[in-house]
Amino acid sequence: MRVGRLRITAFRFAPPLRLAGKPVATVQSLDEAADFVRAFKGSRRPMVQDSVLHRLEGASTDKEEREAANAFRGWAEFEGLLIES
Predict the structure, then answer these.
(1) What is the pTM (predicted TM-score) of this model?
(2) Which residues contact 53 (CB under 8 A, 6 or more apart)?
């Protein structure tokens, strides 16, 4: 979560997403997803990465949260980061 910004969302990834890295990252919430996107370097499609981040940060309704979560999951899959459980 960014400093100075409190966001409480009900959305949780179920089960949590496991993403490749050193160490493996576990993402349970949209805030954690946004933190991951901000920190990720080497995206094959940086404009898509930026778009996903904006969706994660701007989601305020249940529908927007679901859409942002789906966008994050799709981006992570495209980048080859999603570890299947």
Answers:
(1) 0.87
(2) 34, 37, 38
The token duo for 68 is: 């942002």
What would the pLDDT profile of 52-78 be if each residue is shown by its tens digit?
999 999 999 999 999 999 999 999 999
**What is the phi-psi region of residue 69: left when phi exceeds 0, alpha when psi lies from -120 to 50, beta otherwise?**
alpha
What dihedral angle (degrees, nearest 10) is formed by the CA atoms of 28, 48, 55, 68? -50
Residues 6+ apart with CB under 8 A from 60: none
**Alpha-carbon 4 to chain mean position:** 19
Contacts of 65 (CB under 8 A, 6+ apart): 9, 10, 11, 30, 59
Contact (Cβ atoms closer than 8 angstroms) between residue 78 and residue 20: no
E strands within 32-78? none
